[in-house]
Design brief:
By secondary structure, this protein is α/β, with parallel strands linked by helices. Helix content is about 40%, strand content about 15%. The protein contains nine helices and eleven strands. It has a six-stranded parallel sheet with strand order 1-11-8-7-5-6. Strand 2, helix 2 and strand 3 form a beta-alpha-beta unit. It binds ligand LMY7XDAE. The site of the ligand Nc1nc2c(c(=O)[nH]1)N[C@@H](CN(C=O)c1ccc(C(=O)N[C@@H](CCC(=O)O)C(=O)O)cc1)CN2 has 19 residues, from helix 2, strand 4, helix 6 and helix 9. Keywords: Amino-acid biosynthesis, Histidine biosynthesis, Hydrolase, Methionine biosynthesis, Multifunctional enzyme, NADP, One-carbon metabolism, Oxidoreductase, Purine biosynthesis.
Length: about 290
């Protein structure tokens, strides 16, 4: 029997519907959420992601604030927009689309963001909160993966999870998230220095492939019945090529395809972060009796 699809597109659509009512309630109470984005450069993939984020916002009623800089922008140009978004009351949360051009220090930019407006959960303070296990915005792709598994009843607690890739948007925070008490998985974080990737993959109940190496996870490396989530993005002849070979569906129990799996969940969790932050702000602004 072929694997069950972890349908990120349909799941994200359901989440957007759920968020619409919460945005309407916030707006009626004078706390309309607004998502800001900063896109630096002209990478077509990044532009597509940013445009998709704003079209999602329009669908649920979140206001959009779009800022752009040319590929030649330097750190000072980027920091000037970050300061502007930090100060803009209509912008309740924002993201800086990654990756940034080589000449711009990504970490200096993330650090300059107001952690209370960090809709990506990538500010060092918010990553620190994740390490400590205290409340804060969670990185969108990792929390999207957990939500996708939960909504398809894939058991996480006690599972052996192998994550391939240690980047800051997926692998590293996903390891932290899945090992919290509330998720309770055992995580092996594999990367280019891993000596025997095949043996780790073959033992996994859940595989998250985020290496950006087309076809890295082949069917002979997957335990029968395992859940396999493809997060790798490479472009081959203008089309997305994921990290997971097509015939893995013949052995896996669940597969999150790419496209149509984790990507739409990343966007849905961004909206959720914006709504959660606006709800927290609204609760704080209610005068106590
Ligand atoms: N500031 C951030 N930058 C980046 C992040 C991030 O979470 N924050 N993650 C990725 C890109 N990303 C979000 O920005 C993202 C990736 C994929 C998708 C998506 O919906 N993909 C679709 C297909 C898209 C296509 O056809 O090209 C899918 O998988 O079905 C949305 C957002 C790096 N940068």
């Amino acid at each position: 029997m072929p694997a069950t699809t972890l349908d990120g597109k349909a799941t994200a659509a359901a989440i957007r519907t759920e968020l619409t009512d919460r945005v309407a309630a916030l707006t009626a109470a004078g706390h309309r959420p607004g998502l800001g984005t900063l896109l630096v450069g002209d990478d077509p993939g990044s532009r597509w992601y940013v445009n998709a984020k704003h079209s999602d916002c329009a669908q649920v009623g979140i206001a959009s604030i779009q800022r752009e800089l040319p590929a030649t922008a330097g750190l000072a140009d980027v920091l000037a927009v970050v300061e502007e978004l930090n100060a803009d009351p209509a912008c309740t949360g924002y993201i800086v689309q990654l990756p940034l051009p080589r000449q711009v220090d990504e970490y200096a930019v993330l650090e300059a963001m107001d952690p209370g407006k960090d809709a990506d959960g990538l500010h060092p303070t918010n990553l620190g909160r994740l390490v400590l296990g205290v409340e804060g915005p969670l990185p969108c792709t990792p929390v999207g993966i957990v939500e996708l598994l939960r909504r398809h009843d894939v058991p996480i607690a006690g599972a052996e999870v192998v994550v391939v890739g240690r980047g800051i948007t997926v692998g590293r925070p996903l390891g932290l998230l899945l090992t919290r008490r509330s998720e309770n998985a055992t995580v092996t974080l594999c990367h280019t220095g891993t000596r025997d990737l095949a043996s780790h993959l073959r033992a996994a109940d859940i595989v998250v492939a985020a290496a950006g190496v087309p076809g890295l996870v082949t069917r002979d490396l997957v335990k029968p019945g395992a859940a396999v989530l493809d997060v790798g993005v490479s472009r081959v002849d203008g089309k997305i090529a994921g990290d997971v070979a097509k015939d893995v569906v013949e052995v896996a129990g669940h597969v999150a395809p790419n496209p149509g799996g984790v990507g739409p969940m990343t966007r849905a969790m961004l909206l959720q972060n914006v709504v959660l932050a606006a709800e927290r702000d609204a609760a704080r602004s209610v005068p106590s009796a």
